[in-house]
Amino acid sequence: MAISFREFTHAMTQWMTEAPEEVKQNLRASSWKSLMLTGKDVDGGTVFSPQEIVDRVLDGNDELTMTVALPVALMLNRRFGPKNGISVQLEEQGADAGDPLPEGAPSPDAHGMQEATNEEPTPQPDQASQAPSDEETIDWIFPAYDYSREDLDRPEEGGRVPVTVSDVGGSLRYTWPDAGQSEVYRVVISDLEDPYSPDDFDEAAVTEGLNALDSAPWTTAVRFVTVWGYERLGDDEKYLGQCRRVASRVVVHPVAQWSLSFNSESRCVDASWEPPVAPPGATVKVRTARLPLEQPVGRYLRGSAWLSCEIPNNGAGFQDSENLVGGKQYNYVAAVEAQISGETYTSTPIRQQITPEVEREKIVDLGIADDEGSDPARGSALRLTWTQLSQSSVTVYRTQSPVDPAASDRATVPEEALASAGLPQDAAITAAAGIEELDTPARQLRTISAVPWPDGHEWDTIYFTPVTFHGDGEVTIGTTVQRKRATSIENVTLTRRLNWDLVTFTWPGDATLVELRMTAPDAPFDASTTPFMSVTHEDYQADGGCVIKNGLPAPGGRLHLNAITYMSGTQISSPPVSIEVPSLWTYQYSLKWPGDVKVMGGFMRQAVARFGHTVVEVTVEALRGVPDQSGAIGLTLLHNPSHLPLHAADGQRVGLFLERPTKDNPQEPAMSVLVPPNGQPLSLWFDHSAFPPGYFRLVVDSYPLSAIDEGAKHQALEHFGLVDPSLSDLIKKG
After folding, report:
1. Residue 63 — pLDDT band, cuts 50, 70, 90?
2. What is d(CA 464, CA 395) in angstroms, rounded to the nearest whole number?
3. What's the rounded Cα separation, in Å, for the pair 17 and 20?
4. Cα separation of 223 and 190, whole Å?
5. In the chain, what's the furthest Cα-to-Cα distance?
6. Is the pLDDT reported for residue 14 higher than 90?
7. pLDDT higher than threshold 50 for residue 317
8. Measuring CA to CA, which residue among 265, 162, 244 is closest to residue 197?
9. Is residue 215 a contact partner of residue 207, using CB atoms and an 8 Å limit?
């Protein structure tokens, strides 16, 4: 005997109200079609095997044989089996005849015996309120529909009589108004189109009441429900008269398998559902929304206000990461919307809730670089960069010392503990960070430019620490990055000597060494050039300064000094300090006295003087002389009877002859003679006979720098040095 699906679902619906709980869990309405197909037609009916049910419906799970497959097989065989009965052999299921049935399963006395005798049990008093047995149900006989009666329900004319729908345990319960003629009602459903006839579509129920239960599985997102009222022909008559359409409803099923999850890696809410199937000629879509945070939900769900918060989806789900805050509960709503013949129908909106976990992101990639446009030697302005999740809140702190390691090692610390960890509020950088999207979803590159490096030696080592604020009073301290600069050199002085120079300054902090470079007066500092001298702190202390052997170049120029320190193997240079190096032209001279020949241990100066040999030759030679005499200065010979002359006004000037004097070559003596250019020795002569015993000395004929006119600074006394011969050569004895 072939079983119609209507008959099968009717039997299952009635039995499921009293079926064991495990049966309800494992035999959903969506599996009833497969369950019906396990039946085997035999003479007089259809029989069901527990093993077939296990293999084809329960995925081969033998553990469900006694608790699920056997009870449903017993019920179905009682309902659809041969009238002479059919026995279910437990031995076929691998059970012994003496084994007890599991808790909740019908006993053999209740079902097996009924199958053998085909007798119904007598209802007990507590069963009086339950649905009547199949034998008590009237098998109404319907006439062929001929459209002769006028319909009460006419939706195409705007006269729809509504059917109220409610969800009862996963089934749809339909309720409709009384048509007023004591009719028998037939509920007809279709998932494809609005039923135009009660005979060509699926019958969900036949009842004399005003409600029915529909447990048929869905095939599309829409269910067309029509209720047909049949005339009664007599009180005891099973034959019914013609029908009319008395009520209808277009039911849009809610979103199926609608779920939310939180992706902690991408920090987004992932939503998914089973895409709804549209019936022919209709279109369906899913409408989704995220309700405002921390606002009452009811005001949005009582009507269609939730659509004002709509967010897009791809038909099967969505990803939402915009402004998500960990620890806050978010409400999402989804509903199916169907467009049918120009009308819009919407399912009941379903709300789902989710609370994203609080992210404890620790910034570990903070980078520091000299900001473009700033002084590269000083690094007075810095640029900070790091990456973070788009929804994270990060503040960078600038301090003179590192953060407390005990605090930075913890996953989180209270926000109020930052100050005690070495990160006071006034150390926070308040400048807004620039944002650049990265290829990695939900991550951003943040940049703060033009971050000042404070002045002062106490800031020569600087620390930057990123801190992530989580919004719940807790923070995560990121990896601190250190940056150093070499301390600037101060109090530089230069002392020039004839053949060496001395440079002194205040040693710059913890600098490893100091570099010295020399350039022309107007040339800029160039750190790429090799310094002519580098001095360590130890050498500086030992020598009392930077001793420049052989001295700086005679023409002078500019001296540049910069300190060098190291951090993590990287050399760091301080900004240069520059001072002027004045020119220093140096000369030496000698006196050749007549009679300077040793005889018996003494000189013959006085002896030869008695014979009129009194002319002394003075020879001047440049050690580092002027390049030409345009910038030369004068020399003068002084005589002082009591002491060695110290300056150009300390004695009597002695006339100098440019050629050796003779009787035939009279000359006017010169009181001052220009120094010779470099590489050209100068010979001068004077007659000492007119001078008493004492001291003769050649000196620079000039004034100190302070007394020299601005336009003639290069002729100041400080720019020239004169090396004396031995003292014995400068003395005239009596």
Report:
1. confident
2. 10
3. 9
4. 6
5. 184
6. no
7. yes
8. 244
9. no
Could you give the angle at the alpha carbon of 360 between the alpha carbons of 354 and 363, nearest 5°?
140
pLDDT tens sequence across 202-243: 999 999 999 999 999 999 999 999 999 999 988 778 899 999
Q: Which two tokens stand for residue 549?
A: 């052997």
Average of pLDDT values for 51-63? Answer: 89
Q: Can you tell me the distance from the alpha carbon of 574 to that of 564, in angstroms, rounded to the nearest whole number?
A: 6
Surface-to-core class of residue 132, CB atoms within 10 Å of its CB (0-12 exposed, 13-18 middle, 19+ buried) = exposed
Written as six digits, the tokens of 726 are: 């031995």
Q: Could you state, in order of their start, the residue ranges of all structural domains in the chain?
A: 5-124, 155-252, 256-354, 367-456, 490-581, 585-732
**What is the separation of C-alpha 456 from the centre of its chain, rounded to a whole number of angstroms?**
33
- Secondary structure of residue 528 in the 3-state scheme: coil
Query: Side chain identity at 458, as an amino acid letter?
Result: E
Helix H segments across 468-588?
A: 537-543
Cβ atoms within 10 A of the Cβ of 517, count?
20
Amino acid identity of 683? S
Q: 547 forms bridges with which residues in the sheet?
A: 502
The reply to whether domains 256-354 and 490-581 share a CATH topology is yes
The yes-or-no verdict on residue 325 having pLDDT over 90 is no
- Nearest residue to 696 via CA among 645, 628, 630, 648: 645
As its CATH architecture, domain 256-354 has: Sandwich (2.60)
Give backbone dihedrals phi and psi of 166, rounded to 5 degrees, phi first: -140, 150
Residue 379 has pLDDT above 60, yes or no: no
pLDDT of residue 94: 38
User: Using one digit for the tens of pLDDT, what is the confidence trace for 246-278?
Assistant: 999 999 999 999 999 999 888 899 999 999 999
And the tokens for 343? 């009308």
Cα angle vertex 128, ends 127, 134, to 5°? 85
CA 2 to chain centre: 67
Confidence of residue 605 (pLDDT cuts 50, 70, 90): low
Q: Which of 181, 185, 177, 232 is nearest to 205 (CA)?
A: 185
Q: Which CATH number fits domain 490-581: 3.30.9.10, 2.60.40.10, 3.30.470.20, 3.40.30.10?
A: 2.60.40.10
Distance CA 100, CA 95 (A): 9
Separation between Cα atoms, residue 450 and residue 628, nearest integer Å: 52
55: left (phi over 0), alpha (psi -120 to 50) or beta: alpha
pLDDT at 607: 59
In a 3-state reduction of DSSP, which class is residue 556?
A: coil
Q: What fold does the segment set 155-252 form as a domain?
A: Immunoglobulin-like (2.60.40)
Cα atoms in the Cβ-side hemisphere of radius 13 Å centred on 229 = 22
What pLDDT score does 123 carry?
Answer: 38
Q: What is the pTM of this model?
A: 0.45
Planar angle of CA 162, 167, 173, nearest 5 degrees: 50
Which tokens hold the place of 316? 């099967």
Mean pLDDT of the chain: 86
In sequence order, what are the beta bridge partners of 451? 382
User: Taking Cα atoms as reference points, which of 697, 614, 608 lies closest to residue 652?
Assistant: 697
- Provide, for the chain, the percentages of residues in helix, strand and coil under a 3-state DSSP scheme, each rounded to the nearest 5: 15, 35, 45
Dist CA 72 CA 68 (whole Å)? 6
Residue 714 carries which side chain, given as an amino acid letter?
H
Considering only residues 297 and 440, tell me which one the structure prediction assigns the higher pLDDT.
Answer: 297
Residue carrying structure tokens 């004045």: 582
CA–CA distance, 8 with 46 (Å, rounded to integer): 11
The phi, psi pair for 526, rounded to 5°, reads -130, 105
Lowest mean pLDDT among 334-338, 523-527, 708-712: 708-712
Alpha carbons 223 and 188: distance in angstroms, whole number: 10
564/475 Cα distance (integer angstroms): 38
* DSSP secondary structure of 8-57: HHHHHHHHHTTS-HHHHHH--GGGHHHHHTT-EEETTEEE--HHHHHHHT
Quick check: 698 and 636 in contact, CB under 8 A? yes
The confidence score (pLDDT) of residue 498 equals: 83
